[in-house]
Fold these 4 entries.
Entry 1:
Amino acid sequence: MFKDRKPISTIHGADPRKLSEVVKRLATEADSDGPGGIGETSTANSAWLGAASPKGYYDVTDQIDVRGLDLLNSDSNLGDARTLFNRSKPFALAGGRVNTDLDGNERRIDWVESDTDEQLMLYIPFQSTLRVHTLQITSLPPKDLDQEGGDAVMRPKTLHLYTNRAHVLGFEEAEDLAATQTIVLQPQDWDGGTGTVKVELRFVKFQKVSSLVLFVSDGHGEGERVRIDRVRIIGEKGEKRELGRLEKIGDEPGE
């Protein structure tokens, strides 16, 4: 048996009893949700994850070109696009501990909400071409949804993903384009402990990804605001690209 790539137990021969004991012990450790478990960072240098990564794939969020991030229709009094990729646990889950942003500044408001309606448009460029397997999206609306001003804050419901765009899409432009993939999330998809949903993608369509556009077109409920606390990209790293020379990749030559 291996844990964190280190051998922790060895069983010689066919011994179902010993195997069962080891498996039960490992299951107990996983359920304890301590350091290295779900909802925690595995090392001091690791980013917080709200869910386990699929076997064989890794958190590649560090491949984002943060200078090129763009976010449309977000409330300017709250977080910005960089907030979504903060390496720390969301403040709403941090038990009162103060988080820091990407520049090391203390920040208690470490989430994003839409502004004039429930739609958000997020542009994510990468430093290298990636194979993207899964998105992890964390959303932690207050349990008391009656906010100041009467606006109910919702989790995202319908997601539209577009690959290899040279810049962020306008809302009307996105509605006129065929998405690489559209996902409709259900309330039960969200983890009750971490507020995270695992969005598994059609892997064959996300093999050479130099940028992603995430369009949240609506939320769960009747409110006017959608909240996102964290986004994580799970997949495999590819070749480094020359920043500043991102080009759209179409289905036909010249597109």
Note: The longest strand covers residues 120-138.
Entry 2:
Amino acid sequence: MSDNPLDLAAVVSNTNPAYRPGPEPLIGKHVILERLTQNHFADLYENVGSHADLWTWWPDEPPSTASEFDNYLNELLKFMIDDLAVYAVILLSGPNKGKAVGLAFALSEDRLTNRVAELGLFFGPQLQRTTAGTEVPYLLSGLLFELNHRRLQWKTNSLNLQSRTAAERYGFVYEGTFRQDQINKGRNRDSSWYSIIDSEWPICKKAFEKWLEDGNFDEQQRQRSRIQEIRESLR
């Protein structure tokens, strides 16, 4: 072990704690993220809970009834007291305008020391592969970095290629895989870990914003530039 301070890691000059998200909604152009309440339950069952295929990689089994799903969400509400912020994702346009069509999670249990947060998304079909869906991690990641977190994590089942592709698309950097990390639904789970750190967020943020601009889409709402291409051009 070296006694030379020049051989040690960089000193962390920002010693202030991170903060948990407040109750305020996050308002974007395509979506609003509202803190989850029972008012969202019916929409969420229609758009998430009743779609058994969406639960393949989720650690819990799909609910068989609306009341079972309500019980599941009520359990989530119990954990929203301190470390976990759960948001209903509400569309601002289209045929499902005003409806909750997905969930977003911000876990911030290491605020006072290492200032680490974790992002999670559970999207219904109306959010998958959409501009609105991309705006969700932009809004929530931005909030967590504004609240002084220095690291934002994304972890997923290593077999969940859709989640891994999404993480890399949003700018998360692959860090490795924890083998035999969990047992989910009686099956082994190896967990792949990704992160964005505070020094990387300004470029990721700018790439999100440029990708979300109206000019990045043609008359058929097809993207002109991929967000990965935009982010690379900013480095």
Note: The first helix runs from residue 41 to 49.
Entry 3:
Amino acid sequence: MILAASKRPISSLIFLYPSFLQAAVPAARRHESSARRTTKRLRVKPDPSFIPSTPTNQLQDNVIFNPPSSSPSPYHTPAAFLPPSDPRRSLLVRSHEHANPYAQPNKRLPPPMQKPIEKRYHLKEDEIAEIRRLRQKDPDTWTRKKLAQQFDCSEFFVSMICEASKERKQQQQMALDDIKARWGKRRTYAREDRQKRRVLWARDE
């Protein structure tokens, strides 16, 4: 019987160690050389169709349509890229009709999830004057919600017919400033960033 010498070092043969020494054997770790090979293989060059052939200073706005290599489908190809005589245009129209069956004129819609709210104009001039008087007299007790429940109307309607006094606004502003003073840097930055986004939304940017 011929015994061939193992090319692996004895320290790597864990099964030869006793059971109480196997836990002390160091496990294999990934070194910098293997990590470099892994990241290098993940670096995939972009498709040539995405690389502009013109210089960067002469580029203009254009549309790049590079679909994956598959069978043509009206769901994947936009109508702007289909010729007028292409039969896929009719298939695309039929697919839209099938996707939205309620687009037909004589098709009945499903019942609403909530009961529609009907506007009511039941409050008279004396009741509106009473709402304003209570709101000006004690805004802490007669809040918008309580007035809406008392006179059977919406809080938005209460805010339309009566406005809070200047003292009430100052109290609310002081309370808000006190809350903002306890904010940290992260929350302060988040609120400022939210205000900037709202301004950009209003500008459609």
Note: Helices lie at 19-22, 32-42, 88-99, 125-137, 144-151, 155-161, 166-181, 185-202.
Entry 4:
Amino acid sequence: MAHNTESFFALNEALLSSALAAVVFSLLSAQPLTVVGITGLISLFNYTIFHILQLHDVSLYPNFMVWVGIWSAIFHWLTAIFNLCDLMRTVTDFSSDTFALYVGTIYIIKGFEELSINFYDNTILNGFASALVAVLYTLTVYLLQKIGATCLFNSTTRTILSDYAYPLATVFWTGFSHFPGNLADVDFIRLPTSRAFFPTAARSWVVSFWDLPVKWIFVAAPFGFLMTLLFYYDHNVSSLTAQARSFPLKKPAGFHWDFFLLGWTCLVAGILNIPLPNGLVPQAPVHTISLTNYEEEVQELKTKDGEVAIRKDMTAKSVVEQRLSHFIMALAIIGTMTGPLLTVLGLMPRALFSGVFFVVGWDSIESNGIVEKILFLCREARFQSPSDPLLTIKRSAIAHYLFWQLLGWACTVAISQTIAAIGFPVLIVALIPFRWVVMPRLFTRRELEVLDRLTAMNEIVLVSLGGKPEMPEEKRERLRLGRDEEGVEGDGRDGKGYEKSD
């Protein structure tokens, strides 16, 4: 974002925005488990607006972004007041899986773009060394995260290595980039830092946004609406995934209040000219996972040859539902804004951020429902699990369903690579009515029940959203059966086709 906005939005702005959101949501939100901060999508949104204004008058950008934040806050409040968050109960895996795949793809693309900066000015040595560090950092974090599901070491060690994979890898590979010897010949590009608690660029936190011409104030309105549309889906889906059915939560959700609160953070962040924060995926569900108490069960399975195989199963027993962990994150972020810690952050090679993008992106892709269905179609028949519900429907139906998801994914990724990138929230949100209106006409009820399901399945979440909705395929079948029964009664026959007797 700093590279694409000429450092108008950079490290200090991102830290202040993340700290603001973390303090507000840890103390005042109804869903404190949802981690809030700066996402890759808001970065995309911000620098796309910058590129658009470069075609007109880029000096308008500071004042214009304030009004985008103000309009976005107004639209957030209206959304919450009129209970429009209730519509999130209609979100299914059809759109959420597509969105997750899109987010993962964008993160990986941005990782490569960030890595390419290290090759600028013909610094080939630095470029290849940075690429190597980014790849090794990615593998380190990925493997440390996977240790939690293995049988290596003891339970405490596995938990520590898995939960603290990012800081452990960051400390090691930052130190690695400072090793003497041949590595000393590499001029790694470090994280650019500036004066503590001051904007990165030569400006004040609050600009004279009231001096923006009236015409441009109203031009900012549709941008604020698109920002709201993005947050409506992204933030609420983050809350849904942080409170998924797999987590044994007890405290109820509060989507309307949190979205109203998000409007206030949009207003404050807009006036301060910092990026607007919202819910983070996959950080939000990862936060809940780290607070979940799992019970490990060891099972002994005997093979045909009489040998005994050991299998470890992990069952979620409870979740530590509190505000403290999120608030500690806020304090830690505020700490990194101080001079000494900014100096420490300046020791980090930029290549590590490419690695972060790669890991976060791959996390969204690896466990994605679209990828799982593609692997099912590619897997040899004799190795399919006999209990897999996908075996009960035609393979052509699975391929047809994937076609529409991949089409939505391809369109959003494609538009995100153009100056029209600010329109991608429209495509994402449009997948919801497409699923409810068009898909039931293309697939049978049984096929949709196997291929898709509601994203909000946790009872405590559905209470906040007005309850579980009736799926469109269920309604179509109910209405069809009702018409059939009326037709049978009008024909004087019972349900089995025999004439009724008096």
Note: Residues 495-502 have pLDDT under 50 and may be disordered.
